[in-house]
């Protein structure tokens, strides 16, 4: 099966290049360092490294604490992070600066993967969440390089897709040294798809081990003063195509009850900032963009968060948060950055990428689920009008984050175990 998969990859490779060029028309950063995606780069290391792969911004953010622990635990071993998107690359630079090396991840064609491994010479590969690449993991197995699928998740929807390629999926999963699943349902899906007995451990989600910057509260207070201390403020975080219209419609309803309310709208992808601004203006809202550094006036109805790396600050400054990617079937986004700050969260029905976490919050009364723009408006208007109710929900969420910490230490133990099993000399670190 893997050979057929590889042949198909070779056949569509010209289309892959065309798609890369097409994406670069909207986001020129896709043209930069494009040869890295084919395994061609000057290696920053000469005697092995830890290689961590995180697709984009969300995965990089989720892995941030793990990266910092790896840097502290193995100071003599370079850490290379790969991403697929330029926004992920920018996030790596923003969070870690010169402490790590960054490359774009190689395409999963055999000759590309072999070239990449030859140049990088990794001693350990860590894949974040659901990065299951047949040739990449086969090459790890061939070279006796341990691999870890960390913070692993597998939704029911994803599991059904993987079952269409049952043989290839089983072979690929069995090439992974260890799968550290976020929850029991994730672990069950991996086992049904063919993981070996004893190959899967439930470690919890490292996202619960979120560590907020000490300066975040002060930064949030500053921007809240700019928005207006007394007015109700809600954030729509990481929205997607087709969702912004729903959120803006909900905000129009909220303003019928609370005319002074402010929506902080933060699209997931930077290339959509201008389009979302146009949508807000077309809907009749007075708009201010973060990038313009203009003051937020009393008549401002929508504040567009068209910046990078400031979502946590926006969340901390708000009274409540809607988590995007959930009113449309994208799978949702992480609710814990808001919950850790005591900000109550609401999300749509499509949270399958965070099924276990979202279900836990709903079961504990620490979040609300809505299914339409109308119900989003109803919940938002009620919470923005009732400080006691939203504080109660927010505190439940903060407590849940505290109760579920610990996955990070379990992952550190697994990494140490994988290194010891390959008989690495501790003096190398």
Automatic annotation (TrEMBL):
Q: Where is the 3-deoxy-D-manno-octulosonic-acid transferase N-terminal domain?
A: 32-210
GO molecular function ontology, one term from the record: Kdo transferase activity
Boundaries of each Glycosyl transferase family domain copy? 287-398
Reaction catalysed? lipid IVA (E. coli) + CMP-3-deoxy-beta-D-manno-octulosonate = alpha-Kdo-(2->6)-lipid IVA (E. coli) + CMP + H(+)
Q: Name one Pfam family in it.
A: Glycos_transf_1
Biological process (GO), any one: lipid A biosynthetic process
The Enzyme Commission number assigned here is 2.4.99.12
Location in the cell reads: Cell inner membrane; Cell membrane
Alphabetized, the UniProt keywords read: Cell inner membrane, Cell membrane, Lipopolysaccharide biosynthesis, Membrane, Signal-anchor, Transferase, Transmembrane, Transmembrane helix
- Coiled coil spans: none
- Its EC top class is transferase
Which pathway does this chain act in?
Bacterial outer membrane biogenesis; LPS core biosynthesis
The regions listed as transmembrane in this protein's record are 6-22
Keyword Cell membrane in the entry? The reply is: yes
> Site (Transition state stabilizer): which residue positions?
129, 207
Report the membrane topology from the UniProt record.
Single-pass membrane protein
Q: Which PANTHER family match?
A: 3-DEOXY-D-MANNO-OCTULOSONIC ACID TRANSFERASE, MITOCHONDRIAL-RELATED, 3-DEOXY-MANNO-OCTULOSONATE CYTIDYLYLTRANSFERASE
Family, per entry? Belongs to the glycosyltransferase group 1 family. Glycosyltransferase 30 subfamily.
What is the role of the protein in this entry? Answer: Involved in lipopolysaccharide (LPS) biosynthesis. Catalyzes the transfer of 3-deoxy-D-manno-octulosonate (Kdo) residue(s) from CMP-Kdo to lipid IV(A), the tetraacyldisaccharide-1,4'-bisphosphate precursor of lipid A.
Q: What is this protein called?
A: 3-deoxy-D-manno-octulosonic acid transferase
């Amino acid at each position: 099966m893997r050979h057929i998969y590889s042949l198909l990859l070779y056949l569509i490779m010209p289309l892959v290049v065309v798609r890369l060029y097409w994406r670069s028309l909207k986001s020129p950063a896709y043209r930069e360092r494009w040869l890295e995606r084919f395994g061609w780069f000057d290696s920053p290391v000469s005697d092995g490294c830890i290689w961590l792969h995180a697709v984009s911004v969300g995965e990089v953010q989720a892995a941030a604490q793990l990266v910092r622990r790896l840097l502290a635990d193995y100071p003599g071993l370079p850490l290379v992070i790969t991403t697929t998107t330029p926004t992920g690359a920018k996030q790596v630079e923003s969070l870690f600066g010169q402490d790590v090396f960054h490359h774009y991840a190689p395409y999963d064609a055999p000759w590309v993967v072999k070239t990449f491994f030859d140049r990088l010479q990794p001693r350990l590969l860590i894949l974040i969440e659901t990065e299951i690449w047949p040739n990449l993991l086969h090459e790890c197995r061939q070279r006796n390089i341990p691999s870890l699928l960390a913070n692993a998740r597998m939704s029911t929807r994803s599991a059904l897709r993987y079952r269409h390629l049952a043989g290839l999926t089983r072979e690929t999963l069995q090439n992974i040294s260890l799968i550290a699943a976020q929850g029991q349902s994730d672990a069950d899906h991996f086992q049904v798809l063919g993981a070996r007995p004893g190959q899967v451990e439930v470690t919890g989600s490292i996202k619960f081990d979120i560590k907020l910057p000490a300066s975040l509260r002060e930064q949030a207070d500053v921007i809240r003063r700019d928005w207006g201390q007394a007015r109700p403020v809600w954030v729509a975080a990481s929205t997607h195509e087709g969702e912004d219209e729903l959120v803006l419609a909900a905000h129009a309803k909220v303003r019928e009850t609370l005319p002074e309310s402010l929506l902080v709208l933060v699209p997931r992808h930077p290339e959509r900032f201008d389009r979302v601004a146009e949508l807000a203006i077309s809907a009749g809202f007075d708009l201010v963009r973060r990038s313009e550094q203009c003051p937020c006036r009393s008549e401002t109805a929508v504040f567009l968060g068209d910046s990078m790396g400031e979502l946590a600050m926006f969340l901390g400054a708000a009274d409540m948060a809607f988590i995007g990617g959930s009113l449309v079937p994208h799978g949702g986004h992480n609710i814990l950055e808001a919950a850790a700050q005591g900000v109550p969260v609401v999300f749509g029905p499509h949270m399958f990428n965070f099924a276990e976490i979202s279900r836990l919050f709903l079961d504990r009364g620490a979040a609300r689920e809505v299914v339409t723009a109308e119900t989003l408006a109803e919940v938002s208007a009620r919470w923005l009008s009732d400080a006691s109710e939203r504080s109660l929900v927010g505190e439940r969420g903060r407590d849940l984050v505290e109760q579920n910490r610990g996955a990070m230490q379990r992952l550190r133990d697994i990494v140490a175990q994988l290194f010891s099993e390959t008989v690495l000399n501790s003096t190398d670190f």
